[in-house]
Amino acid sequence: MNNQKTPVNIHDYYHAHVYFDQETLEFAKDLCIKAGDLFSLKVGRVHQKPIGPHPKWSCQITFSSNNFDQLIPWLEDNRQGLSVLVHGLTGDNLQDHTEYAYWLGSDVELSLAMFQP
Hints:
CATH architecture: 2-Layer Sandwich
Distance between the termini: 23 Å
Shape: globular
Protein name: Dopa 45-dioxygenase
CATH topology: Alpha-Beta Plaits
Oligomer: single chain
Number of strands: 5
InterPro entries: DOPA-like_sf, DOPA_dioxygen
Strand content: 25-35%
């Protein structure tokens, strides 16, 4: 997949999912903690297994449109090659993970079957 779009601040709330593996685990944990501290954001657990539609290890950062314009460039500048999925939270999980999905770095094919009717 490579139909990347630049993240756009059009929703009230968002998730950023930072993807990593064994070699980048410590860096990813530090990145998420730092983002949470710098921007006063809720950082979820560090999942060392695929969870939900995410086929790689990941950590979720929850943020609002108020944080978007500062957080997204910061993540882009500090992710050091990690892929980050940014998506809106509209209540429609399929649409959020497709139409309202943006990538920092390489995109990753999500497991969307769980969102199919």
